[in-house]
Structures are given as C-alpha cells and as structure tokens.
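Quick one - inputs below.
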Amino acid sequence: MNGSCSEAPIVTRGLTKRFRSGQVAVAGIDLEVPAGSIFGFLGPNGSGKTTTIRMLLGLITPTSGTVQVLGQPMPKAQLSVLPRVGALVEGPAFYPFWTGRANLLRFDAADRTADPSTRKQRAGEALERVGLSNAAGKKVRAYSLGMRQRLAIAVALMQRRDLLVLDEPTNGLDPQGTREVRSLIRELAGDGTTVFTSTHLLAEVEQLCTHAAVMSRGRLLRQSTMAELRSELRPRLVVRSPDLEQAKQTLAALGVTDLREPGETATDDPTVEGDPGELPIDKLAAALVAADVRIHGFGLERPSLEESFVALTGEGFDVAE
Ligand SMILES: Nc1ncnc2c1ncn2[C@@H]1O[C@H](COP(=O)(O)OP(=O)(O)OP(=O)(O)O)[C@@H](O)[C@H]1O
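Output:
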C-alpha cells in the first residue's frame, strides 16, 4: 500500500452541490473515511449519495467546499489520484457476446494509464480475485447478475488500488449475487484496500461495514464506527402488565423517563416502555411488585439500528436484503 494512505483516504470539508435547477443535492458535508475501513455511505434514495460520489471522483465540480482523495485535492490532482482509485459508479456496459476476459481487456485498453505489456496478466489476476477465473472464457450474456457485478469490480481492480468507491454495488442483485459481492468486498478490504460503498440498505451496512455515515436530504447526519453506533443505542425498559397505569406511576416516581405505550407489540398485553437511565433494574422490578403491579413481562430491549436511524432521519430505510 502507498505510504500516504495512513491519512484518511477521503476527506471532504463543507462539500456542497447545487444543481442549476437550484436543488441543493449535497449540503456542506464533512466526511472522513479512515484508511482500511469498509465505510458504508447510507441514505434513502435521493439523499445525495451519488452526487457526493461523483464529486469525490472528479466527475462533477462542487459548488463549494473541498475534497481530498488519497491526500490530494480533487478534481485538481485527478491525473495522479484516479489511477489509485477503483470506481464502480454506473456499471460498465459489457458486450454480451464477448467473453468476460475479452471485456476486461477492452476496458483496460481504453485506459490510458494502463500498461499494455502487463494487460493479460493483470486481467488474469483481477478475474482470479473476483472468483471468475473459471468463467473468464464464457460470454457475458451467460453470466448471472452477480457474476456481471463481479466482472464490473474486476474492471476496477485491473490496477492495484488503494481505494475502492462503489455506488450501490448490490443494487438489483438477487440474494446469491448480493452475498457474492459482499464477500468479495470483505476480501478486498482484508487485503488492505479502503472501501467506500453507498447503499440504501441498512442490512448491508450492518453486515459489511466497519464505519457508517448517514445521509438525509443532502445532509450528513452522523458518521462513526459501527461499534460506536451500536453502543449508543440505549436499552429501554419494557414492562407488560394489565395494571398499566399503576406501573407507569410507579416507574415515573422512581425516575424512569420518556414513558410511552408502544403502538404494536408482540403480545396482547398492555405494554409500557421508558428510559431507565442508570437505575438498577432489579430495584425497578422490586418496586413494581411492592406496588402490587401484576407483571407479565419485564426486561431491557435494545432498539434496532433501523429504529435509531429512522429516529435520526425521520425516514424509513429499506431493510430488505
Ligand atoms: N444532474 C442533476 N440535476 C438536477 N438534480 C439532480 C441531478 N442529479 C441528482 N439530482 C437531484 O439531487 C438529489 C440527490 O440525488 P442523488 O442521486 O445524489 O441521490 P442518491 O442518494 O444517490 O439517490 P439514488 O440512490 O436514488 O441515486 C435528488 O433529489 C436528485 O433528483
């Protein structure tokens, strides 16, 4: 890996894009993508992910703000930066009647920074890395969607890359293709490549990423490690009881805050939940019993990542695979 990669491979400051229509697609975002991370750039459709990625790669110019990729300013330094960045933005258009290998060679031949004398060898290595060596001689039209996407990633891997930027790499894939691409991304990151990947799928971030940033309506709401995001999700006290009013009063008197009755629950029992803060839960249980509250259920529940992101963005995420 290149020495300059110890610094964050992607840094933006106040990055903004206002389109001619007047629409502000990206509104002053400060991104910092650590070296070696699998960074999930998460947000609902239309939240500004693709526009951000296009600015990172120098495909469009920011209205204001700065972008540094691999320590150098973009788009100014794109000639020296882009050969070290593998990108998958709009999937490359393959010739269906050509083999996977022939398509790969064609893309490399169109790349002025690529060395023709090593082309065949590099194609062989890229096909090997994405697990397509055995299918390299097959026509692309016989490829599954997952194989096509892996071939697209092979295009991005024809040269040694310090950073991969992938825009919705599993979009449109069936579950098998999705698994293939996710495991490929994990392997690539395991080799030390930083991976920046956008997605509207929360499950993708949960399964794949070490870090995440959450976009909503052009703004960056949060960015942190996945471990931090998870630990921040405070557990809530959940009590099921036919004596709901009394349960509420008792808990409130002990200092449980934000008491609410959730709409839908797994059981028919009336349920109240609240934030117990630092209160020891055995004391809370004892107090309910002492107040003659009949208890059908009692415990701490951690909100899912989805619930907390929905609370953050006010929008739902697609949690489907
Ligand atoms: N060339 C353009 N001209 C005008 N508006 C645009 C242009 N490109 C994108 N937009 C608008 O900017 C907003 C952000 O779009 P963007 O494609 O960046 O979002 P996204 O998060 O990548 O969503 P998706 O996953 O649907 O692509 C959207 O409202 C979109 O309509």
